[in-house]
Amino acid sequence: MEAVLVEELDEEQQLVRRHRKEKKELQAKIQGMKNAVPKNDKKRRKQLTEDISKLEAEMEQKHREELEQLKLTSKESKIDSVADNISNLVLENQPPRISKARKRRDKKAALEKEREERIAEAEIENLTGARHVESEKLAQILAARQLEIKQIPSDGHCMYRAIEDQLKGQECPLTVAALRSQTAGYMQSHVEDFLPFLTNPNTGDMYTPEEFGKYCDDIVNTTAWGGQLEPMAERLLVRALKGGKNTKIVTLNGKKITKMPSTLEKLPGLKTLDLQNNRIPKVCPEISTLTQLTSLNLGNNLLEEVPEEMKYLTSLKKLHLFGNRIHRFASGACDGLQNLILLSLNNNQLTWIPPEVSRDKRLT
After folding, report:
1. Burial class (CB in 10 A: 0-12, 13-18, 19+), 167
2. Where in this chain does the entry annotate a coiled-coil region (predicted)?
3. pLDDT value at position 242?
4. How far is 261 from 143, CA to CA, in rounded Å?
5. Total Cβ atoms within 10 A of residue 266
6. 343 by DSSP, 3-state: which?
7. 278 φ, ψ to 5°?
8. Would you say residue 4 has pLDDT above 50?
């Protein structure tokens, strides 16, 4: 009897601990939902309040039902224990008794079967419900336009999975992990565009740089739901990618970017790339794929050398590298620049220019 009581106490403690964890997770989710809705959007704020109340009520009901079920199981277990003790008094030729562990398994299986039956009944009822009717009509409208609804699991990655699916049709696939990483990177390189929309839930003040950094880290390293800001960043990030091979011009002037976007390799038809007035310290290797590029502006950045990858830009006519820290040309960096007619190198730290560059080129 004492062992049974200890076991029951452990189960109750575990249940209470799990309930406490689920409440914390719900509060984190609610906070994310609040951050995603602007304070001045009264209509969405009202809907948000209703959604939050619904989520809290559902969790409270779920926890109450689980506690009641545990108490019921505990009561039945005590009765079984008493019955087992009495059964020990019967004659030896009576049939063997069923073990307590077996009874618990049978009860658990019965409860699971009952739950599945309730789910099946609910699904049958939904076939005639308003939601099902609405879904059927929407499916018909989409089918007429050769479109369809795609189900995305609500696992915290749902927004990124939806974007991932759409990009597959644009011939520029990116994984969920890559989308999260690039979204966070874009937001960190455009702090002034996103920081005003994030406020501390406790003080109401705008996020500090440290809090904003933590927010971006969570995008990369957790399953945090995407709010209003993440789709904004994604939209800006993949705007050029949507054009795929047809994209001709990309301009990211003065965005405080600290790294050239590696997705450039998805834009082989690019003609003009403007990345001036940023904080880029080196040219990314992917630039070698832009063989149709005719104009490249990397002025006012933090470059220290002209890399070897430049030699693959065989169609390049204008190259702006002014206002950097360039002090050297990599070996063979200019071997393929036979079409170059303008090279801007003023305000750098160069003491020597390769002869193949200065020959028949307009230098500034």
Report:
1. buried
2. 9-65
3. 53
4. 37
5. 23
6. strand
7. -125, -155
8. no
Q: Other C-beta atoms within 10 Å of 134: how many?
A: 10
Cα angle for residues 52, 54, 59 (degrees, 5° grid): 95
Strand, coil or helix: what is 352?
coil
Facing residues of 350 across strands? none
Span 308-325, pLDDT tens digits: 989 999 999 999 999 999
Tokens of 359: 């020959």
Using one digit for the tens of pLDDT, what is the confidence trace for 242-276? 555 567 877 777 767 778 876 777 778 888 888 89
Chain-centroid distance of CA 350 in Å reads 43
Token pair for 313: 């830009």
Strand partners, 272: 249, 295
Q: Which two tokens stand for residue 201?
A: 């839930």
Dihedrals φ, ψ of 155, to 5°? Answer: -110, 15
Contacts for 355-362 with beta carbons within 8 Å, 24 or more apart?
357/329
Q: Evaluate if residue 43 carries a pLDDT over 50.
A: yes
Question: Residue 290 to residues 252, 269, 285, 293: CA-CA distances in angstroms?
Answer: 17, 7, 11, 5
Distance (Å, whole) CA 56 – CA 73? 26
What length is written for the chain? 364
Token code pair at residue 282:
């080196």
Contact 27, 55 (CB under 8 A): no
- Long-range CB pairs of 29-34, under 8 A, 24+ apart, other chains included: 29/55, 29/225, 30/55, 30/56, 31/201, 32/224, 32/225, 32/227, 33/225, 33/227, 34/201
Annotate 214-243 with b (16+ C-beta within 10 A) or e (fewer): ebbeebeeeebbbbebbbbbbebbbebbeb
Alpha carbon distance 330, 309 (integer Å):
9
Question: What band does 207 get if pLDDT is binned at 50, 70 and 90?
Answer: confident
